Amino acid sequence: MAGALVSPQVLSASKAEHALQATDSKVEALESQVNQMSQMLQSMQDELTRVRTAASRNASESSAKVQELDQWMASVKSTPVAERTKDNMAFFRGGYGHGNDSRGTFGAVPGGGTLVGGIGASGDPLVGAQKADKDAFYFGAAMDFSLNDDLFGLMDNTQFLAELGVEYKEFADDTYSGVTGQNVTTNQLTISVSPKIKFLKGSDFRPWLIPAGFDVNIISPPSGAVTVLNAGLQAGIGADYKIWNNIYVGADARYHETFDTIDGVDTDGVTAGGYIGFGF
Prior knowledge:
The protein has one helix at residues 2-78; strands spanning 89-99, 106-110, 119-123, 135-148, 159-176, 183-198, 205-220, 229-244, 247-258, 269-279. The protein is α+β, with helices and mostly antiparallel strands. The chain has 2 domains: 1-81; 89-279, Porin (Beta Barrel), CATH 2.40.160.20. The strands form 2 sheets. The protein has an 8-stranded antiparallel β-barrel with strand order 1-4-5-6-7-8-9-10. The protein has a two-stranded antiparallel sheet with strand order 2-3.
């Protein structure tokens, strides 16, 4: 009877102990889950902090870049707009020319060479016995090419240019050839390449000078020795004025000097006239 009464008590205690152990296990499992969730939350918090820090740094860098861009735009807007200038020029010339010596006159020289009927000649037989006029008219064209704006650093607002030009001069058509008897037009073609110094860049009025340029002279008719070419120098001064939209009018005077004649033909002389130019 007593054994029967004890057994239920023992059984009841055993069940309570098992229930307590099960509760403890659940509590431990719950604490473990809570700890895991806490670690996950801490990780999420750390990641969120990192993202916020990175975003703040990126925002700071972006703001700095925006400020730098704003400063650059402000500096560009405040910089004066440079006016694009047309420093080269094509121009067309014309005016008066004068030679130092006249062409023409010759004398017969028996045995001096076969010219007409076995008679030689000295002088300028192709022009004729009569002297041609020293005065002439001329026309031509030239181009200026700008090389720098400060004369190689020596003078501000002073251009150094290269001028390439061609000029035709006609002296007279009132002489008669000693060879053919025909009326002769005496003329001369000059091709030149010259350095040019032009002052007051940026001004409408621009004086200039050519200290010394290179000339090649071609004469017609040929000399008595039947030569046509002679080389020399030219020097000149002038000025031009911009009248409207890169259109210029100007005047110049030039002296042409050679160091020798073309077998007796002197090509030295002066020209003076005007020109109209177009900047490009």
